[in-house]
Amino acid sequence: MDNNIVMPPAETKINRVFLALRTCGSFTRFDAERQLSDHCLPSTISEIQKRYGAGVSRKFVTVPGFQGKPTQCCEYWVTSEEWIRLKRRKEEAPNSDQTKRGLQNVQD
Fold it and tell me: What's the domain range around 34?
């Protein structure tokens, strides 16, 4: 993942991470710490799933950890099919609570 991502401002950490998943692709907890100032990505992902009904994909990956030793963590992303589903849901119910809380970040 690119370490020099410039993100547009977002009101909340949840929206910032949701937007980053849309515009930048995938993140591990370490990427999110460095690039998004999110100190607990797994909890943020859980909240995105609960709050917006978004399906967030994940897989275990091995990355350099403390003193360069390998460690496992999850890499998270939202598939293009899921973004299409969320966009469709936003169009069908533009005044729903989920849309008001953050599906406005779902774009083409």
Answer: 13-87
Pairing relationship of beta strands 27-28 and 57-64 according to DSSP bridges? unpaired
pLDDT tens digits, one per residue of 3-58: 444 445 568 899 899 999 998 999 999 999 999 999 999 999 999 999 989 999 99
Question: Does residue 3 fall inside a structural domain?
Answer: no
Residue length, the chain?
Answer: 108
Q: Domain containing 34 — which CATH number?
A: 1.10.10
Question: 5 lies in a domain?
Answer: no
Going by the DSSP 8-state scheme, the letter that residue 28 receives in this structure is E
Residue pLDDT, tens place only, 87-101: 898 888 776 665 555
DSSP string, 48-77: HHHHH----EEEEEEEE-GGG-EEEEEEEE
In one-letter notation, the amino acid at residue 91 is E
For the chain, how big is the Rg over CA atoms in Å?
14
